[in-house]
Amino acid sequence: MSKLSKSVMFRGISDMKTGYWFIMLSLAFILLSIRDVLFAWALAGVVDKALTGDTTSVIHYLWMLGGAALLSVPLQIFAAYSDYRFSVFGVRNFLAKNVLKLIHIPEPYMESHHSSDLVSRMTGDVSRVQDFMCGELELMQCCVFYALVPFFFLLTFNLPLTLIAFGVLPPLMLLLNRLTKPVQGMAKEVSMEQAKTLRFAQDALSAPEVVKSYAMEEEMDKRFAGAQKFVIGKVLVQKKREAAVSSINLVFSFLPRIILALSGCYFVVRGQISIGILLAFVQLSDSGIGLMSYGDRMLLQIRQCNAALKRIYEAVDMESERSGGEVAQEASGENYIEFKNVDFSYENREDTLSGLNFSVHKGEKVALVGSSGCGKSTVVKLIQGFYSPDAGKVMVQGLDVDKWDLIGLRSRMALVLQDAFLFPGTLRDNIACGNENVTMLEIEEAIRAAGLEDFIKEQAQGIEGKVLQQGSNLSGGQRQRITIARAMLRNAPILLMDEATSALDAQTEQEVKVAIDKLMEDRTSLIVSHRLATIRNADRILVMDGGKVVEEGTFNQLMEKGGLFYSLFASQTSICLEEVLI
Length: 582
Description:
Elements: H1 8-16, H2 19-52, H3 55-97, H4 107-112, H5 115-155, H6 159-166, H7 169-206, H8 208-213, H9 217-269, H10 275-293, H11 295-316, E1 335-344, E2 353-361, E3 365-370, H12 376-383, E4 391-396, E5 399-400, H13 406-411, E6 413-417, E7 425-426, H14 427-432, H15 440-449, H16 453-458, E8 466-467, H17 476-490, E9 494-498, H18 506-520, E10 524-528, E11 540-545, E12 548-553, H19 555-561, H20 564-573, H21 577-581
Parallel strand pairs: 3-10, 3-11, 6-9, 9-10
Antiparallel strand pairs: 1-2, 1-4, 4-5, 7-8, 11-12
Helix pairs in contact: 1-3, 2-3, 2-5, 2-10, 3-5, 5-7, 5-10, 5-11, 6-9, 6-10, 7-9, 7-11, 9-10, 9-11, 15-17, 17-18, 19-20
């Protein structure tokens, strides 16, 4: 049985892990409802004794009224504190267990789905759940106890009148439950459509230069407006259903009051209850009727929260990246990285890698080249354990990647990509990149090695200089140098570079290449590159085509061979072989 087949509402409440404070809050509501019973009983006594002229008893009951009122102060404080602990810590525990788990969703899902889908689940859906946990859940709990305690107390006064006052609740709640059932599906549809709307906004805001350069503002406005219109249509259908349910509930909420008033007067006339008892009935039964008044609201909120929880758990229940495994201490042989007859294909695509075999020795600098789509970047992903091969083995330091502890595996690697991603924050934060134990001296050494020293000195705030979203206030070369400093600071034995300089101009590329050469010192390096002129100094070059290595050798050896590498190089440089070999 899948987790989603169980009640997601009970699962959500269970994930709050605040059973103790749930009990304390329930106890507070029980005590408060007992206070209401005492107050109603004392009020009934005051009225009945006043009608008979029994002054002494009236004073006695007035003291009881005062005591019940005084009792309200500590009980309200206890209830408010329990409510705070229950809701705040419950939400914290729910988020810690579920929302943070979304970070560990596997790479294949992240690459095949728009990020707005997860953003919508982590914002809109989580917000709905939080609102329910911090409001409606406590209200529902309060209403239940405020109805049950008076119900059992009133049974001792007059059984028929109690059943008349509360008897309408069960059938009405069943009716409301049936009427609100479609709201859950509607709420889920609205959340899904809101995620699509967010997708349009996110796409437009993530590339404002492209949108403006191609005069796409009007087109993006139309797309967003169209998506919004569709969402509004869905919301209106949902709200119509909610309005109909609320109207029906409002009509039925007056019905028990009318029935109680008529029946109560009948019993008073018959002498079966006193006027004071009738007043107590009216006051206490109003708690139960109040439950009915809030019934539609509670059920609608439960439906909407249920829909949000389903979307959250759909993501949470996806298979996460595996945890645990082995950690190799050192390569068992000379091969630091090795592909053994590896086949791999992405979902619904043709084979990307087919019978791929190659190895990288410890301390060796190996370049991986080939035309677009030959599988170079896929090799880097397989080495990091983002994907598993369909066949064959990927070995790192003598251990199969599928057996590695992924955190341990990735801690052995430093990564420099074509897109130098920077986090909003400071230069120090982006260089340290989550390394809390790094010292300022180590950061300064990485800065010097990456050629960032002059740039840092030019900043008014130095190393604490601000970095905007995606490093938009920095040049491409500066961003790439920061990622190089980040990789140097990691001090990992394996360096993976995927098109690290392809987005830079020739002059900046040469400047950054000096920093990259320092970064590769004493490391096992695998360099993926389109710019073949930048890999002259590689110890070996592997040429890929059709998902496998078709040529291998040094730069000069491959040029002399006049094969695929020569053709690729010639198409980039438009110069002849003799000129290259000079």
